[in-house]
Fold this sequence. Notes:
Shape: globular
Structural class: mainly alpha
Number of strands: 0
Order of helices and strands: HHHHHHHHHHHHHHHHH
Strand content: under 5%
Radius of gyration: 25 Å
Low-confidence stretches: none
Largest sheet: none
Amino acid sequence: MACPYNITSTNSEEVTYTSHLKLDTLLSLNQPLSDAHDEYCFVTTHQVYELWFRQIIRELDSIREILPVLHVEKEKQLLAISRLERIKKIWKLLVEQFDIMETITPMDFASFRGHLKSSSGFQSYQFRIIENKFGVRGENRIRHNQASYSSVFKDDQLQLVKQSEQDLSCFDLIETWLENLCSLISNAFNFWQMFTENCRKWLSEERKSAEKVQNPNGKDALLDQCCQNETHFEGILEESKYEILRSKGNRYLSWKALQGALMIYYYRDEIILHEAYQLISLLMDIDDLMIKWRCSHILLVHRQLGSKTGTYGTSGYQYLRATFSDRYKVFLDFFNLSSYLIPSEYIPKIDKETRRSTLEAYMSN
């Protein structure tokens, strides 16, 4: 494959396709432990996974460098968006790779599984680093044989995993960015105050409408729905109630960050918030694809192993199935934003003057 840019190396040593990609080394790395034909495919697929994991880590690290300055260097939003888009496409590819793994039948897998001994995908330290850098919470992890997931790692791998636990994750940085964005725009457009007033007005009018219903059964059902809506919305409108939900692990974002996320959600078509909405959407897409990756892994394991014990001593399918839940969804709060949709006539309006002053406040920071 010729280089389309015709770049000439300044080094005296010739650079070729083979030398640049270190193909001789790369192609020598697939060394099956058995004579089984399908183990070669098994090893290739997992090696490719690890190469893409390394690329995702590189992209996440670059994004984590960008996010802290987004509120002052707004042009970098496009760079963050492009790199999140790349991560999204990589995860989509990784999900699709399970189609190749599924060509290895249970009998084919059994022909070399014994040679794997205690090796397991559970030991992929790069995958754990990705989880930590993205924002999976340690307290939400399913424990393996009553031990921490990190207990399987040693030396340099353990140090890298532990460091990724301590570093600020994408979630941490996005939370701070949302708080800053909320404070910045609130100087010109007090979204939260107007949103709170309009929500309570809507809830009050809904209750009055329900109380006018003549049919007792229908009236009771509507009043019950009103109570549920009032409790649901008060859970975000009142900071004290929100913090109770957060302390129970039912919410992750800070109260102020949630306000910023809702503002972006409602005004995504406004020029100053459109890119912010793209960023949030991509984070949700990646979250979604990581869950789909888990699901595909679970289905593959169930297909090939049934209910047998996993190679590293986990309960196999049963253990993996327990990880397929909202516990591992980093930006769960973004998925829940649609729970707080209100009728369009109650959404605080942005007139021309408000739009101008908001844009000035945003750009002058």
